[in-house]
Amino acid sequence: MTPVETSAREAGDPHDVQGLPPLPASLQARLADCHTLPSLPAAVAKVLMVARRTDASLFEYAAAIEADPALTLRLLALANSVFYARHRGEANSCREAVSRIGLDATLAAVMSFGLSPSGRAEGLDLDAIWQRAIIAALAARHLADRLCPEHAGTLFTIALLQDIGILAAEALDGDAYTALIRATDSHDALCQAERERYGCDHARLGAWLAVSWGVPQHLASGIAESHGELEATSPDMLCLRLSGQIADGWLTQTPGRAFGRLIRRLETRQELSLAAFEEILDELQAQLPSMAELLEITRPPQRDSHELLAEAKRHLFMQTLTLGARLDAHQVELEALRERYAELERSSRLDPLTGLANRAWLEQQLEERFHHSREHGKSLAVVFIDLDHFKQLNDRHGHQLGDRVLANFAASLQKMVREGDLAGRYGGEEFLVILPDERVAGAEAMARRLAERLASHPMAEVDGAPLHVSVSIGIACLGDTDFRNARELIDAADQGMYQAKRNGRGGAQRFTPRA
Ligand SMILES: Nc1nc2c(ncn2[C@@H]2O[C@H](COP(=O)(O)OP(=O)(O)OP(=O)(O)O)[C@@H](O)[C@H]2O)c(=O)[nH]1
């Protein structure tokens, strides 16, 4: 956190945090009218006045605190607590106490005294709020000791005060706000609900309140930014934001799951190893009881860091398994979809009755092959086949038999074409075969073979008697004539076929351009 300059502002709410956008105007107006906002005892305010000066000495801090005996006692208790006393002797004066615990922690202790759980706001669970605050404050300090020691004291104070905005929101809205807390199942969800209701969350509101008390601006802007994403933040911001999330995980009914999620979120941050995280949790557990005692709040639940992280890893493992299983299922689904798509695509090219290429596919293929043959100076033959007297066949034997004949004819045709050729149904009883690299002679040979086959193989049986069909065939060839496009080539083969019909059916006729 970069300390924010405390120069006077020209306009706007004097309690705004410099460097941050102002609070929504309607909220500012309501805050200005609210007479129940939490305030600080005079002694605390005096200490804050000292803290606002960058050149304030230890002596001045001590002097401000000594003016209030209760505050002095609280500070001495803190300096002599397990956390600060370690192997040192007893601190007997306010000055000794301030020197031992440092200016930041002194400020935090003084502030927490001013906002002690014995204060007002009966609708709120102040005990829970302070539990979160002290866990976060200690976590922030220990995280900072590892990641940015120069900010450890400041972060302790900010983390401790990060939720004071809840006090302001409760003062504004009373039961409606406490109902909002009850309706949300996590701190994140509460922030989101606040943003929807007030246009900002309690962190931002807390920063405003802090400035109104005279808390130094850099602490206030820290409070404003204390809630948010862990990714892509500076190390000090990571310590601060993580501190609140550690506190939430610590206090939840399912800490293993919460810490599992936290570890996953931290995966992108290399600075903090799992071993360091476990040490921090150990330190937290060691210090929380005395801190809770000092603030006269209920002790937060006891957590065994080793067990906690083992459970967190179990959750992560289960989550990975579930994700893996889901991924597998998705892959199977994707494969099935791919197959289905390929099948659809394949069937979209086929004629359903005969299983041969349909007209659209024939035309598209001919188009491509036509251009390819032209470009490479190759020949390309098209054979147009029309079954003779098919109407008569239908009329005599019925449509179903007609269908069977078409299907059997298609199967025979398919057997006669070579790899690289394409046979398809062009329409009704019309068929087309594309013969790449083939000249008229090759196409005529194919027509002959087809006629022979039809003569020797009946296409159906009627009352035990074989039913033979004949076809009329038209042939056109790129190479013989200079067709401009595939359409012209088909039309030419069609004309050849009509000529074959006119010649008496059952034969093949090559296209001959009129002179
Ligand atoms: N069973 C059946 N008949 C079809 C199908 N498609 C077209 N036809 C019939 O094929 C017949 C074609 O008749 P025409 O075009 O008059 O030709 P044709 O009777 O074969 O006479 P020519 O071609 O002159 O030898 C029509 O009666 C169509 O109803 C089909 O999918 N199934």
UniProtKB/TrEMBL annotation:
Region (Disordered): 1-22
NCBIfam families: GGDEF
Protein name: diguanylate cyclase
Composition-biased stretches (Basic and acidic residues): 7-16
Coiled-coil features, chain-numbered ranges: none
SUPFAM superfamilies: HD-domain/PDEase-like, Nucleotide cyclase
Source species: Halomonas kalidii
Record keyword Nucleotidyltransferase present: yes
Entry's Gene Ontology molecular function annotations: diguanylate cyclase activity
Keyword Ubl conjugation assigned: no
HDOD domain boundaries: 37-229
InterPro entries cross-referenced by the UniProt entry: Diguanylate_Cyclase (IPR050469), GGDEF_dom (IPR000160), HDOD (IPR013976), Nucleotide_cyclase (IPR029787), Rev_trsase/Diguanyl_cyclase (IPR043128)
Keywords from the UniProt entry: Nucleotidyltransferase, Transferase
Entry EC no(s): 2.7.7.65
Catalysed reactions, as listed in the record: 2 GTP = 3',3'-c-di-GMP + 2 diphosphate
Annotated GGDEF domain residues: 378-513
